[in-house]
From TrEMBL:
Family of the protein in this entry: Belongs to the LysR transcriptional regulatory family.
MF term (GO), any: sequence-specific DNA binding
Entry protein name: LysR family transcriptional regulator
Domain of life from the UniProt record: Bacteria
Entries under InterPro entries matching the protein: LysR-type_TF_proteobact-type, LysR_HTH_N, LysR_subst-bd, WH-like_DNA-bd_sf, WH_DNA-bd_sf
Keywords: DNA-binding, Transcription, Transcription regulation
Domain HTH lysR-type: start-end pairs: 1-59
Keyword Transcription regulation attributed: yes
Gene3D superfamilies noted in UniProt: 3.40.190.290, Winged helix-like DNA-binding domain superfamily/Winged helix DNA-binding domain (1.10.10.10)
Gene Ontology biological process terms in this record: DNA-templated transcription
Entry keyword annotation includes Transcription: yes
Amino acid sequence: MDKFNNMRVFCRIVELGTFSAVARELKCSTMMISKYMAQLEASLGVVLLNRTTRSLSLTSAGEAYYHRSRQLLEDLADLEAATGQMGERIKGHIKVSAPIDFGGMYMVPVIERFLLTYPEIKILMTLDNKPPNLRIGNFDISLLVTDTLDPGVVARKIAETELCTYASPAYLSEQGTPQHIEDLSDHRCLHYVDTPHGDYWLFNVAGELQRIKVDWLLASNNGRALCQAAALGMGIVRAPRLSAAPHLQNGELVEILKDYQRPALAVYATYLQRRFYPAKLTAFVEFLLDYFGK
């Protein structure tokens, strides 16, 4: 019996939630995953997982074993990575998750520069506004535009952007310019979904955050699409300045309700806390800090 293999399988079951998901990841049968778990529990003499036809849950012994096993496996991976990189060039794959707008508008030039510097690196970038669970292992690094962070991750601030309210000059000429946030109820709104705030827009009112529920005409998880709609005169949009920048530069959008602007949102590079960080990850994070710092 390969104890380390069975330990890895157990940890992936906890992280992915089902035997079948682990079987797909490891390209083997669900029956084989069940066999690995049976071997592990038999060798330990305890039940690690409560199994029903619909769900899995950790026993108290399983909870303790998972956390210690995860640390041991991470330490082993760190040791192998550190040893393998001695005297070698930085190389390998980096899996990156980034928000749709930030990744699509700003990350490609960064990656192009980085790959010129480190030609033996390959980068897989996935664009999604929903932050991934880094513990699952699908990503090495997650870029977030946020004002809240989950515990258990390292967060390096690489940039920041204001969250502002915009409309086209043509729309404001036809519909009037709102002077107070309460006036938004009389306007067509373009809503950015996939945020923690649901159907609400948050504003700074005398130093305190106030939520306004908007009756939106168009909603999307793509800020660039919403800004384009606003530039066409379809309504008022609330979006990060980084998404609106091209339309602001050519005058298609103007900022309104400036007195209610919230503090800037930070753009973070986040990754799991570890004792040792692979050289490829360290190089990429430091490159991001330097690029956006300039």
